[in-house]
Design brief:
This protein has 71 residues and is an alpha/beta fold. It is built from three helices and three strands; from the N terminus they run H-E-H-E-H-E. It is globular, with a radius of gyration of 11 Å.
Length: 71
């Protein structure tokens, strides 16, 4: 995860589509931060049973992101 985080662009200047499939809690935050303004973030990975991922809602709203699952 730290290798991916090192390549994440600055907030707002990122990718149009980000797919998180690792199932690691921290990967959700990394995926949102990697997304550019108006981008789509697809969350496919499932954290271990009993684990909760924090979704940085302020970044989602401020940058007009679409967060979706596989459907």
């Amino acid at each position: 995860l730290s290798l991916c985080a090192a390549k994440v662009p600055e907030a707002g200047s990122g990718f149009d589509l980000v797919v998180e499939a690792a199932g690691v809690v921290e990967a959700v935050t990394t995926a949102v931060r990697a997304a550019g303004r108006g981008a789509t973030v697809v969350l496919l990975g499932l954290p271990a049973h009993g684990k909760m991922a924090d979704l940085p809602a302020n970044e989602v709203v401020y940058r007009d992101l679409t967060v979706s699952d596989a459907a």
